[in-house]
Amino acid sequence: MGERVAYIRVSSVGQNLDVQREKAIAAGVAPENIFEEKKSGTNTNRPALKEALRFVRKGDTFIVSRIDRLARSLADLLAIVKELTDKGVSLHVLDQSIDTSNPAGRAMLQMLGIFAEFEAAIRAERQVDGIASAKDKGVKFGRKLLLTDAKIAEIAQMRRDGLMIKDIIAKTGLKKATVYKALGQATTGEVA
Length: 192
Hints:
- The protein has 7 helices and 5 strands, in the order βαβαβαββαααα.
- With 192 residues, it is of the alpha/beta class.
- The protein folds into 2 domains: 115 residues, Rossmann fold, CATH 3.40.50; 40 residues.
- Strand 1, helix 1 and strand 2 form a beta-alpha-beta unit.
- The longest helix is centred in the middle third of the chain and has 34 residues.
- It is elongated.
- The mean pLDDT is 86.
């Protein structure tokens, strides 16, 4: 019988890995076989996951607490499961009681992956609806406009008063390119 290897992940630095670590140890994973990281599941650069997948060997069991800790989409999940299967490694998902060493476990894993992807799509749709509703109510999104008409006029006046560009930059706190853009707009009469 092979090794038990676990991958545990939380989405942000402020979150804690302790609960997942305890579950992995309770499932028989040696602490040195636990690969941990604090990265968003949507982040494709997950070095600890890559390292864990390289580490496992034929006959090993790869353990995660939940599917959403492992994959960011159904396609990602299926690619990881295929990689594990090709290496002769089974996947055990603790919280959902899934074990890919048998056909029922593989079927359940695919169904849960589909539901997870569906849930993510609904969440994204709600976010788009929320943003549209906020915009309808007058909420402004994005960075605050740096070059208002008043700021452009102020910069143009400073330049007419003989201030050097470096002095205008120091007084306004704007970058050099922004000051030149303002002067260009003042000269051409463009509105910000």
